[in-house]
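Give me structure tokens for this 279-residue protein.
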Amino acid sequence: MALLFIKQLLFPRSGYTRVPPSSPTRDLEDRSTEGEPTHEKLPPPMERNSCSRINARIISDATIGLSDGLTVPFALTAGLSALGDTDVVIYGGLAELIAGGISMGLGGYLGAKSEAEAYNAALSETRSIVATDHDKAAAMVKSSFEQYDFAEQTLNSMTTTLLADPDQMVDFLMRFHHQLTEADHTASKAYTSGLTISTGYFFGGLVPLMPYLFFASMHQAFVCSIIVMALALFAFGWAKTSLLGELCRWTCFKNGVQMMMLGGVAAGAAMGCVKAVGS
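Here you go.
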């Protein structure tokens, strides 16, 4: 996770400006000025976005697991290689992979579970407000659209319509005021998050450990481990960007290089600490 923080610090997103999607209520306001009815329902999500992509949360969890798995076990095996015993490197590396994978998986599970609990708490509070305090609910609706500069008449009309249907009001406030969706905070998401992080960490950590299984020379295994880890980091950075929907190969290449550089910095720093303590 420290690797992700360093990446955001050194390589902030640039080169484009994200244009916020047009608000459905803005479209309704424009239509109302043209004399068209404003009571039509919004299209289903699948109609608004036909591009199917991998869930961004899964990619985020995989990034956490793989990035840590590629760097931390590498630093450990590099430090153990100084002992000159291949068996120590292999067994120590496998033990770290298992313990680290379990620890990372539990962390992801507990984090996602806490998010689900926070969602349920916000949902209960919102339902209570809608049922007992219409004035506060109306104020929450209006505050959700402050940045859009809607006419007061339009806001009042929307608020009145929403208050007439408590379930619709609760759903609206959760989506637009709290900016929370039920699909992202279900109980199953906690298991998926934990499993994704744990699996990513384990298989990512196997990459720098594999050369020690095939080379008798400790030096050759260490050099091969460096090369394999660098290639794996580059491939992962490229694939992650591509899976997010990026079509520009140059952007994928840059992100692959960024991941490789940052992984090298993290692994080098860990190795330096080991050598400093050993000396």
